[in-house]
What does this fold into?
Amino acid sequence: MTARALRSLPRALKPVFSNRCPQAFAVRKCHQAKQSTYTPPPAKYGGRHTVTLIPGDGIGPELSGYVQELFRFCCVPVDFEVVNVDSAEDDITNAIMAIRRNGVALKGNIETNHNLPSSYKSRNNLLRTTLDLYANVIHCQSLPGVRTRHSNVDILIIRENTEGEYSSLEHENVPGVVECLKIITRSKSLRIADYAFKTAREKGRSRVTAVHKANIMKLGDGLFLECCREVASGYPEITFDSMIVDNTTMQLVSRPQQFDVMVMPNLYGNVVSNVCAGLVGGPGLVPGANYGKDYAVFETGTRNTGKSIANCNKANPTAMLLASCLLLDHVKLHAYAQIIRGAILSTLSEAQLHTADLGGHSSTSDVVQSIMDAVQSAGPRTLSM
Amino acid sequence: MAAHSSLLSVFKIINPRWNGRIGNTVKVFGTTFTSHRNKTSLTPPPAKYGGRHTVTLIPGDGIGPELLSHVKEVFRFSCVPVDFEVVQVNSAMEGEDDIMNAITAIRRNGVALKGNIETKHTLPPSVKSRNNVLRTTLDLYANVMHCQSLPGVQTRHQNIDIMIIRENTEGEYSSLEHESVSGVVESLKIITRNNSLRIADYAFRLAREKGRRRVTAVHKANIMKLGDGLFLQCCKEVASGYPDITFDSMIVDNTTMQLVSKPQQFDVMVMPNLYGNVVSNVCAGLVGGPGLVPGANYGQDYAVFETATRNTGKSIAGKNIANPTAMLLASCMMLDHLKLYEHASSIRNAVSITMNETRLHTADLGGQGTTSEVVQSIMRVIQSKGQLTSEL
It folds into this structure.
């Protein structure tokens, strides 16, 4: 195989070129190997990280603009490579290549136009499946300063991101009868379950709940549940239980405090994460992360385009800014992440600057300004405002 | 098929002469043949003899048996002219005989009241969910659930009044799954034009009858473009025939988020099977829990009433702590269906009055009342209203 031969070439040449450009060779060949154990190195040159930025549609561009502004203000050593995605097919391929190059991305939601033919797949979905970002992690926490009907909510939702109902496999063999395929595979279910338990262990969580509908979809969700049980047996310190999705949603609206970590297939994950986001204060507050083996893409938890409030200076920047903090944690710039996060929380609780979705009257720019003030008063080096 | 239709035409010819005598027999024949014909315009007559209706009762598992016996108690007490034909369904058996008996009984009577039948995970996957088999065989295509904030029940949201119409026979619950390659399971979600048009039509007709102004279709057509796209298209087509009713659509994830923040914005919602399951459970949780909401499954010829969230309640079975409200309200819906409106409103009234007494709230509402106390109180209220009742 030419690919394999080419791959071994840099290894042979490594001693010769080691000081000059070893990383360039490795990064280029990596995505051609199917099951490579080789992790691409982070795109970090001269101490500055390069991160792909996909503004998306709706409120995406303005929020991404604020993120860039804030990072520049706080002197965060991150450079953004902006890739705009339009309706054309090539654009998403460019974006995917940019993410492969940089390893990390921050994105806004790309709109899926209903008027286009059904062969046109959702761009966001295409991005997730091509990069194999198999785990979608959403941490729903009651934030201080935000009044909600439920308090003390702290749920970590881990949702399978690549298969399930989102396989985009549909056909109409008989006119008027459409079959949508929901795919559940053993390997992916084991992978997501393993990710869930590993994350639970790392974060010191004590309980993982699998959400399913195995009484109806016995083979599909039955397989998912079985895989979760298998993985659970390897983590004896973590309690594992399961709950049917309808009961789960009902329990979530009455007593969400009972849940700790939840793992589930794609569609239930979508619904449950939106319910939890609604419980802690809405789509403007919750950040989301999509992790794959080699790549990570950060975005808002509920993936809203927000078309109706685009460019009105009304959108809540919290979700996108917290997502950027998750990004900073991922590239190991923990100090910066903590500073920005602290500033956001103080804006929400002390300054009480709430945007329209939280029932307040502040504009997006006011909130961002307040966050920058808080960062400056906290002491670290910042640019002049 | 030909033999049946020819026999029926013979009867139509003989009928004028035998009118007085075999009038009833024609009806019997009519009932037998109807179920064999696919597109019949002949609705089976109600199983009403001597002014008393016969209704199939399927106790089910968990809290089903005890709640249904309370329903029987209340009916007997209020002198409701309904007799129950009890059909047991054993969930532990792998054979389909039990559920087929139940289905035949429902075909005979036309109306049923049921508890939820447990789907045991230990049985092989070829054993389908009995509840699902019942719904699909009888073609009970519309599941209607009315979530209303009840006075006397304190919840985080007030003034909720949502009518949920859920497609009951296809969608994700087709029970069509296979494992062509080991370790890869494909579950088929079927959406058909006929069923989607049918449920949309039901939704708009019901909205018009009840004087509702807005119907919202819940879907995920941005991902499942063909499937949910077809559903949405059918809803739009039907909506064009009802210009007095506003129609809009919402993606299921946004819907669930809006439900937990501002549920008052929703009026009537129509959706495929799985989203219906999730949304109805969210709404039930918002108005006070699974013990309060009744549900109804309507088909062209049959109607089956049960609790809306279809819980077996195994953990609280036999402990006298279950909330009987959902099952009693379901029986009221059944009485409305049988056109026994006075009895329905008297029982419903009694239930609301009892709900206002917080000391009688059961454990799921945060109180300490027992099921029997609640039922006794309901019966006392019915008696105090002055209608004909048995001894207490």
About this structure: Chain B touches chain A through 58 residues (CB under 8 Å). The first helix of chain B runs from residue 2 to 14.
